[in-house]
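I hope you will forgive my troubling you with a question about protein structure. The matter concerns a single protein, recorded as an amino acid sequence and a row of backbone structure tokens. Please examine both parts with care and let me know of anything in them that strikes you as inconsistent. Thank you for your consideration; the sequence and its tokens are set out here:
***
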Amino acid sequence: MPAYTSHYYQPFDVSCFGPLKLAYSREIEYLMRTSITHITKLSFLAAFHKTFFRAMTQSNIQNGFLGTGTVQSTEGSYNTRHPASNSNTN
């Protein structure tokens, strides 16, 4: 694997955890504006549970693997942006 390319092999970082972080942040901001001033363990878990299922969808998971090129798409081709597919090593 070429140096500084490990992020290409981490499909959940962009496709699932990015949307999870965004959804959780929005949920906490909403709660802070409307009702709470302190986040307890219970309020954290409630907000996380609510946002987890919005971000961890089958579509997001599949798109993460397709986006990194670690699996083939239905057309049978790999992602050509993938650094390993462009390397000329033997």
Summary: The two ends are 12 Å apart (CA to CA).
